[in-house]
Amino acid sequence: QVQLVESGGGLVQPGGSLKLSCTASRSIFTINVMGWYRQAPGKERELVAAITSAGSTNYADSMKERFIISRDRAKNTVNLQMNSLKPEDTAVYYCHATVGISRYWGQGTQVTVSS
Prior knowledge:
Blueprint: E1 4-7, E2 10-12, E3 18-24, E4 33-39, E5 46-52, E6 57-59, E7 67-72, E8 77-82, E9 91-99, E10 102-105, E11 109-113
Parallel strand pairs: 2-11
Antiparallel strand pairs: 1-3, 3-8, 4-5, 4-9, 5-6, 7-8, 9-10, 9-11
């Protein structure tokens, strides 16, 4: 079992930055893959970025130049630094973890990009 707690969402102006954090209830090195998905109103949930236990990263094409996923071993945390935010980045962002065949989700955090 893995519990995931997200933080860092909020309201930001276009062009601004936000950092999301996801803290896991166990060592992140025992989790095969951790990452972030997002879901905008009326749209399907989509991958934003992911990082494996070995440190390999994967990004959605539209975000790879603006977002950075990283991890903090001591805090069992995976972070998502989001830069140059656009109104179309507005969504609920969900932390996700995969352990073997099991998948876990956080409760989600709202990110709103608006002037």
